[in-house]
Amino acid sequence: MTISAVPILISGARAPVALHLARLLAQAGHPVTLVDHLKYPVAAASRLDIGYHRIPTFAAEPQAARAALSKIISSKGIKIVIPTCEEALHLGAMWAQNRMRAELFAPEFAMLKRVHNKFAFIELCRKIGLDTPETHLLTSQAECAAYAASARDMVFKPVWSRFGSKVLIRPDAARLRRVNPTVEMPWVAQDYISGAELCVYAVARRGRIVALSAYRGLVRAGPGAAVCFEPADAQIARPFVERFVRATGWTGQVSFDLMHTEGGRIVPLECNPRATSGLHFFTEGAAFARALFMDDAEVKADVTDPRAVRLALWLYGLPMTLRRQEQRVFRDALRHSGDVLGWPGDPVGLRAQLRSVSEFAGIALRHRIRLESASTWGIEWNGEG
Questions:
Q1: Helices and strands counted in the chain (H then E)
Q2: For 120-148, b where at least 16 C-beta lie within 10 A, e where not — what string?
Q3: Where are the domains positioned within the chain?
């Protein structure tokens, strides 16, 4: 069955997943427009008939961003807005204040806030009846210090964080003393769960899975996001995802970091109400579009080999050559991984990639932050409003 062309706006053009989603939907015949506040986002380098519009910063200029977005939606006849990064929270807030003329392919703002919060997400899973790790909210240094004796069996992380930044895994007392949670910027103390980490990407419509993939990171940018990843068996996580999206009535993209224990437990660690690298395991545009827009379709992931952001793989993987135990992992990643930016008839050259990275480097220097943090500058949501 075919569906008519639907004008679509995709936000977060800085991300390879935004480019991938744009390619999938353009391949299916849908007019696609991309937005971000960057000058040289990687998705803007596409040679396909995909428009890019630069708008004000979501985090710093929400009203100006809203006005610019509203103008684009009207002029392009946009019917659906699909966020791909953390700006999903900012867009959710906009739609909660005053809905625009397009559908936001994401849950209501209250749900977005709830699952983005690393404590509230675990509490939600517990209420649904899912297996969860013991997790405690910390809003003061005294509350944090109360776990000093058991810290070697726990993980500590900010409620609002990404890329695994600031996460303390089984810290000693000295490291734990440097943590200073507040009511505005709380942390969580969570039982350490041993096992194999499983990253899951899903799309749901009205509480039913329409796309599902899973992967494991091979090479990471620091402690968090993988820049090289291999597909894993998504069926291991299906019962968890099905129960979660059904209980929440989820519509939109959603991603999870789960732990698969030796005993077979699937234990949630955190949730990202947006796209993650699992999207790269889908390459059939027509099938993916049907899954997004039709209630009776589910698309299957069709990529079976590892994928990598090649420039980032060199950037973050090269130091692995200095560590004997990691040299083979890096060599295998280079040899066997497909390029996530590759697409028939739509190459993104090295020059465009370097220009994008250089823009992030400039942001990092101006704001004195790490390169990973610069990649989400302007779209992060840390509990505001």
A1: 13, 17
A2: bbbebbeeeebebbebbbbeeeeebeebe
A3: 134-191
Distance CA(111)–CA(91), nearest Å, equals 13
Backbone angles phi, psi at 42, to 5 degrees: -60, -35
Using pLDDT thresholds of 50, 70 and 90, give the confidence band for residue 3.
Answer: low
Token pair in block for residue 160: 């609002």
Question: 3-state DSSP call for residue 211?
Answer: strand
Q: What is the dihedral of CA 190, 196, 202, 207, to 10 degrees?
A: -60
Provide the CB-side half-sphere exposure for 109 (13 A, CA). 16
Q: Tokens 């009535």 sit at which residue?
A: 249
Q: Are 352 and 45 in contact (CB under 8 A)?
A: yes
Burial of 256 (0-12, 13-18, 19+ CB in 10 A): buried
**What distances in angstroms separate CA 377 from CA 122, 271, 297, 364, one per listed residue?**
26, 20, 36, 9
- Judge if pTM exceeds 0.85: yes
Residue type, 233: D
| Chain segment 259-283, per-residue pLDDT in tens | 999 999 999 999 999 999 999 999 9
Asked if 215 contacts 199 with a C-beta cutoff of 8 angstroms, the reply is yes
Residue whose token pair is 């995709």: 10
CATH number corresponding to 134-191? 3.30.1490
